[in-house]
Amino acid sequence: MRRCRACGGGVEDEFRFCPHCGKAQRTKIVEYFQGHPDVGDGGLRVSVYLTEPKHARLSVWRGEEAQAAISLDPDESGRLGRFLLAAGRHRHQSLVSRVLSHL
Ligand SMILES: [Zn+2]
After folding, report:
1. Residues 18/6, Cβ–Cβ less than 8 Å
2. Would you say residue 91 has pLDDT above 90?
3. Do 93 and 58 share a structural domain?
4. Are residues 47 and 94 in the same domain?
């Protein structure tokens, strides 16, 4: 267990944020999303930079090479997140509606 540099509280190694004060424990958070196997290969790497200039770097990977990349500012990153959440809810609601229509 590490100590938060901001408040001194205990922070598990895998935590990205301090559970006591919320301070980011890293300067960058990275997550990799695998491409849909039926539609294409490769994947999407999303790197969220927590220091200035704060932004999210989205890069499309095929093998060990980035094919393209773009950086979004925090407002656009949030808009992308809300868009994906709303699309997911719509898909879920459609599935529920179809199931209910058979009852
Ligand atoms: Zn802290």
Report:
1. yes
2. no
3. no
4. no
Given a cut of 70, whether residue 102 has pLDDT beyond it is no
In Å, how far are 34, 101, 103 from 37, measured between CA atoms? 8, 30, 33
Q: Report CA(17)–ligand 1 centroid distance (Å).
A: 8
For the chain, what is the domain count?
2
Assign 7 to helix, strand or coil. coil
Return d(Cα 32, Cα 59) in angstroms, integer: 10
Same domain, 44 and 80: no
CA of 12 to the centre of ligand 1 (A): 11
Residues 48, 67 share a domain: yes
CA of 4 to the centre of ligand 1 (A): 5
The CB density around residue 18, as the number of other CB atoms within 10 Å, is 20
**Same structural domain for residues 7 and 37?**
yes
